[in-house]
Design brief:
alpha/beta; 36% helix; 19% strand
């Protein structure tokens, strides 16, 4: 006899067959990553942390993988195809990375790089917040989702030069109901390219009294 949960799951899989979101191969009903093993294993790891130069406000940056191949496709599915369920395996990837870096766990707060309110309504979710929530759940570290926010609309950073990116996000963030005073903060974003967004966020957090700001991104584009 089937249990109600397994019967329901079988019914859902019958109507919406579970396929890999990248190569479309059919998946086992027990698969919770939405990616086949072949695609999952093709994610190219970045696996190094970087000290930063004086032009950046944050203390250190880590990136889990390279912004190419399978990982890039997954990020595009999350951001542009509104497939929020992809945040689950991507969060798993970030959690596995964090487990190897004790410094990423010696923090007081996790906060995501915020979306502007209109963009959030359009997309329906903040991809960086989805990742931050999964890290918070795994390591039992508080997550602050709404206290760091965008004060104005900014253009997409895609296609802009480094100088244009810096100008685009200048003074675009603020803090309310400040929980960051004298706290060690881990800022989460999806992709690091020039670092303009996370740098401006870091500047805002430090101005609000944060003790340190460290950055963890899912992918690095340079």
């Amino acid at each position: 006899m089937f249990s109600v949960p397994s019967a329901f799951k079988g019914f859902i899989n019958l109507i919406y067959p579970l396929h890999c979101q990248i190569c479309k191969v059919k998946l086992d009903p027990a698969n919770t990553r939405y990616l086949c093993e072949n695609c999952w294993n093709k994610v190219k790891k970045y696996c190094r942390n970087s000290s930063v130069c004086d032009e950046y406000f944050f203390n250190k940056i880590w990136s889990v993988g390279k912004y190419e191949g399978i990982l890039k496709e997954c990020i595009h599915l999350l951001k542009y195809s509104k497939k929020s369920f992809i945040a689950r395996p991507l969060g798993e990837l970030m959690n596995s990375f964090i487990a190897n870096y004790p410094e990423l766990k010696t923090i007081d707060f996790i906060t995501p790089a915020p979306l502007y309110s209109a963009k959030l309504r359009e997309r329906g979710f903040n991809q960086s917040a989805e990742l931050a929530i999964r890290i918070s759940e795994r390591f039992n570290i508080p997550v602050s989702l709404n206290n760091l926010y965008r004060t104005r609309y900014t253009l997409s950073q895609t296609g802009l030069s480094r100088h244009e990116r810096l100008l685009n996000v200048r003074a675009a963030f603020s803090v309310k109901n400040n929980p960051f005073l004298k706290k060690r903060v881990l800022l989460i974003d999806d992709v690091f390219t020039t670092g303009a967004t996370v740098n401006e966020c870091s500047k805002t957090l430090l101005k609000a009294g944060a003790q340190t700001v460290r950055i963890l991104t899912l992918a690095r584009g340079n």
